[in-house]
Amino acid sequence: MAGLKVKTLDNYANYCCGMAFDSKGYINAGSSMKNDLFNEIKESSKDGEIPVVIDMSPCSEFFKKNSKVSNIYDSIEYLNKIKSKLNLNEIQEPVFVHEVCSLQKDNESKGIFELANSCSYSIEKASESFCCGSGGDRGLKFPGLSRNAINNSIKGIDSNLGVSSSRTCEIALSNHLNINFISIEALVYRALKIEK
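User: That's the sequence. What structure does it adopt?
Assistant: Structure tokens below.
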């Protein structure tokens, strides 16, 4: 659609930015995985000559802060950058938009709302920014954390579809709001498929 070529890392499933290990105190394992990924991306991107797009906001934030590779984008940031080249048509369905903690911390929340607004005729959000309680995989192990955080932050929504930019947040929000959550990239894809 935008006339861009997309390439993924060979054996991308074998790579991790290491944050999941660092955050649990496994510093050596985290550093090893981080270095492997950084070296691979540095080489594959020709040291940042080719833009690198990461589709998980917590990982992209971590990568940007810990890598010397230039030209790194969160997928939200990159999709907004090329939005004018895309033929986006609004889906006729309201969408609940949740900005994950990494976007909130970096004051980058505006981007996900702008992108979602280009893809849906109506978007909803919580009255105040909040953490869904996932904390990486912590909400999967202790679902009460997510349930409590979400129930105390959202008091009823009209949407049956939600978007976010972290898989574990999407799982927690789906489970506790009982609506279907998809990635922001999946929402863009839906908006691309609509015929005028």
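Residues 27-44 form the longest helix (18 residues).
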